[in-house]
Amino acid sequence: MLAPGFLKAWFFSLAGRLPSAIVFCSGSRMFWLCRTFITTPLLAGLALLAACQSQYLRDRGNDALDIATLEVDVDHYGAALRLGPLKAGLDYKASGTAYGLRGGATGESQSAGFTAFFFGADYFRESEIRFDGWRDGLQEEENESPPDAAALIDPTTLSEAERAQLSGQALGGGPRTARNKVFVARAPFGTASPAHRYHNLLKDDDVDFAPATYFTQVEISFGLFGGTRVGLNPGEFLDFVLGWFGLDLFQDDGPIDSGLERQLRESPLWDRLSEEERETLLEQLRSR
Known about the structure:
Elements (H helix, E strand, L loop, with lengths): L3 H13 L1 H7 L6 H22 L2 H12 L1 E16 L2 E17 L2 E13 L1 E7 L11 H6 L17 H12 L3 H4 L4 E5 L24 H4 L2 E15 L1 H10 L16 H7 L8 H12 L2
Antiparallel strand pairs: 1-2, 1-6, 2-3, 3-4, 4-5
Helix pairs in contact: 1-3, 3-4, 4-9, 6-10
């Protein structure tokens, strides 16, 4: 990794040349192209600083990455525009892997969604999105195990797959999840319930909403077999600016308690582990 001192000197040297670069790009000198060449190195510098500097600078780098969305995917058909919770268009994105920058991180993510004129739904996760049980939601609820069922099972019956599942819960949850950038949302109100479940927005007391960052996102998505998603988030830009002054608009600065330990203890498989196995999983979780 590059030395932090070198990165700091490079970044501030570049920032010092910014006023003269802006003058050079004024008038008829390819306005947008010039600004792209100015902004991109600055964002790249922030991302590099985030990797090797203080928590404060890491947070500023993460906030900078939150602003933009640029990813490609597969099994994507049609086109749609989204302004916060409002959608317009006709498109369908099958559940699957996408690649690029989204939710403040680069790499793989899992997404799905559809738009039917002004209605639709969006799913953005770091783990696989499953739609099992959609055809009969009531049957799915009936098949759920009672809360104390796990306590009645012999711990020796825990299969390798179940152990892997519980270990995944202990180590699961990437940066997007920890910083509350993943979501399930329905248009046009931004409610956080799957599209196959009915909720009365005015009468139900348990209606949840997508994270605040979802409501400030502006993006366009389009595809034919393969697809592209491009977006900007003015709310995240404001969070980035305010972050330099110690204000955390979206409460996404670190260190962050992801709640994974609580989820682990609430798992039905937890009661089927020995004390030694529980301690091992908790140590793995706390050392992340």
